[in-house]
């Protein structure tokens, strides 16, 4: 009975693209998603009487995580088959075929629906399922519940997991992170990964001299620092006004504080 309910649970999930299809016009529509969640809660309560929306989301995360793991094994196995002729890996997950409808959603950037009540950025970035990091602990919790229970399939799964631990997964995929640096491109209403900023240009002569002045100021006592800053500010002001020349000098009058003078 439990497997039948989970199968129907997946079929309901598939029939509600607002929960998984990022290019759906209803993907960010909370009202439609709430109706879909209520359907899934009702189905899950057939085996878990206290099920709620949060439990539905955890179930979806667990199912998707297990499916992604099997899908990566298949893709890696196909690549090895092309290079070495090794047999292609056969998934042991009993609902693997049922989840093929999300295969093209794993790396597709979401589109923001700016109609209706506005943009639900938080919902778009992971309210329903978090694709930014693996839910390993959740996957472990439900493995026995959703995996095939025959001894042969368990042995095959263990062997494949051991093989996967010895080889890196798809090299073209970045490591999973809990947060992503995203930027919004309004021309086509999409979120994209923000590229790394370009390297800073090398410092010019003025910047180097400024650092030199700063290092010298740090060697002075507080009073000398204040006087130096005052004189430097006066020189900079006169320079901006075009009042500096080769005859400009520093006057140190004993009765007055030092000033910058221009001698004709």
UniProtKB/TrEMBL annotation:
Ranges for region Disordered: 138-160, 187-207
Domain MADF: 8-107
InterPro entries: MADF-dom (IPR006578)
Biased composition (Polar residues): 147-160
Keywords: Coiled coil
Record's keyword annotation contains RNA-binding: no
The keyword Coiled coil is assigned to this record: yes
Coiled coil: 53-80
Any Pfam family matching the protein: MADF_DNA_bdg
PANTHER family hit by this protein: DPT-YFP REPRESSOR BY OVEREXPRESSION, ISOFORM D-RELATED (PTHR21505:SF8), MADF DOMAIN-CONTAINING PROTEIN-RELATED (PTHR21505)
Stated name of the protein: MADF domain-containing protein
